[in-house]
Amino acid sequence: MFDTLQDRLAATFKNLRGKGRLTEADIDAAAREIRVALLEADVNLAVVKDFVAAVKDRARGTELSGALNPGQQVIKIVNDELVTILGGETRLLRFAKRPPTVIMLAGLQGAGKTTLAGKLALWLKSEGHSPLLVAADLQRPNAVNQLQVVGQRAGVQVFAPEPGNGAGDPVAVAKASIGEAERRLFDVVIVDTAGRLGVDADLMQQAADIRDAVSPDEILFVVDAMIGQDAVNTAKAFAEGVGFDGVVLTKLDGDARGGAALSIARVTGSPIMFASNGEQLKDFDVFHPDRMASRILG
Ligand code: GDP
Questions:
Q1: Strand 246-250 to strand 157-159: parallel, antiparallel, or no bridges (unpaired)?
Q2: With contact defined as beta carbons under 8 Å apart, do 255 and 282 qualify?
Q3: Measured in angstroms, how far is the CA atom of residue 32 from the centroid of ligand 1?
Q4: Residue 220 and residue 207 in contact, taking contact as beta carbons nearer than 8 Å
Q5: How many whole angstroms from 277 Cα to the centroid of ligand 1?
Q6: Which helix (H) or strand (E) holds 249?
Q7: How far, in whole angstroms, is CA 193 from its chain's centroid?
Q8: Is residue 110 within 6 Å of ligand 1 at its C-beta?
Q9: Cis peptide before 70, with omega less than 30 degrees from 0?
Q10: What is the pLDDT of residues 244-259, one digit of tens each?
């Protein structure tokens, strides 16, 4: 991931390394190179503009401190600005004061929601929680079964529709799952919802109805990082149609450029909370903006 961006930024910093002090021309040249690097990484244009302006401003205003050479100073500024566009502080999951904590997953079909549900459940288990997976994706014929398989792999219970608990009606299933969690003392409920291939009104309405029925503590928008700037557009549609508290980026392992990762927090104003980087349930982690920035800078 970030292959080209990493190389391009490294080249920019290398050019500054030998300088005794930063001139206006050095800063302009570096800013141009950073702009090209970010655009090549498919970062959203508005984000690129803000980013480059902030780096330039800070580079100009920097007093040369004895400890850092000009190259190091620019690296520090770029690092800080990367952390900022990636969301700043790590945003941890908020748990309800009174269990169960309800987490709702929303996103397009194929984004990796069902897989993510299993990953999140496994991770929560390792953190000492007792999660319940809820199959509220009744659109795709195989979705319930897929969640059951994922639940089995994670060693987590799955609440699936059967006559009496709202078979065929995802809103009723989601609602019934809360009572089930209360009775059986699950402290986190993870509701997997239906996704379509493209954003559509019915999908949004169904997700909004589920949201209204279960009042989630966290709505997580799950998005495939490999779709690049389409991730940003899809996020905007979900923000309007359903609303969400945080983003989960999936398939980071297949995303060489990193445009979605670098754009989505800033464009949506919502933090990236988790990252998924493989098909195995263990390929999952809390998203740390500072660590991601360090990785980009190599
Ligand atoms: P859903 O339709 O949103 O529920 O998506 P699924 O969970 O069914 O995932 C769609 C496909 O993407 C499946 O083949 C998953 O194995 C795959 N997948 C999910 N997450 C990741 C990931 O982080 N990396 C990779 N490489 N594949 C993933």
A1: unpaired
A2: no
A3: 37
A4: no
A5: 10
A6: strand 246-250
A7: 17
A8: yes
A9: no
A10: 999 999 999 998 888 9
